[in-house]
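User: My collaborator sent over this chain with a note saying "see what the structure looks like." That's all I know about it. Can you take a look?
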Amino acid sequence: MTSSGRPAAGARPSALLTLSLATAIAFALALSLVFFYAPLEAEQGFLQKIFYVHVPLAIVSLGGFVIGGLLAIQHLRTGESQWDFRSYVAIHMSLIFALGTLITGSIWARGSWGHWWVWNEPTLVSFLIVFLLYATYQPLRFAIEDPERQARYASVFAVTAGAFVPLNFIAVRVSTAYLHPRTLSSTSNLPGPMALTFLISVVAMALLWATLCKYELTIKRTRAHVKALRRRLAGEDAETPRRGRTAAPAAAPARVIITSRGGG
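Assistant: Without extra context I'll predict from the sequence alone. Here is the result:
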């Protein structure tokens, strides 16, 4: 909110509501297809249904990391903080989706192979490497106090790691020791109902990622406006003794300090 009581710039609640409704509809359609339309797989049976969650999570998380790198490039080109802000949110949300990928993958591996993890499976190990790489993003970013250096170094990291994601993916694809099903090469090996369900599940997961990113951006922008208002009010309170108001000499500075810390 601005000082006049109007919504903060960039909030656009109508667009956020539309995106949320589209996500809910897509997920309802995807779940309906998963449980009532897609046939059971011959060998794994009902367990194979986790495929429609695990693989879309992996696709969207890896795509989100690449998007974070592209946004970081834009920040390095323009120097505008908004691009670093968007890159941070994209990577943060993709890291959450990547964690979901590892969890669902472990559940699937346990049911299919009898083990929670298989170290000689290149797809699993390579995805874990990507996850651990991006897990260092936030500690590295917030270890730097200067805002400009923080944004610049974080952008360099995002670009470098974002370039590593497709290279890592290609390396895994050409690997000869392959136990993991090649679901990303083509959907032609899936029956029509399975392929349709899979594609809609990917769309639903992508919409969920976009919606959560939008929510996080909106929340952070609102917090930034609140901080600005608190600093402004703190500055006005500091000026009140000079305007002739009665105030304890030591009280005004103490209030400024507390308010500014409370605002982050």
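A starting point for your reply to your collaborator: Residues 15 and 214 are 10 Å apart (CA to CA).
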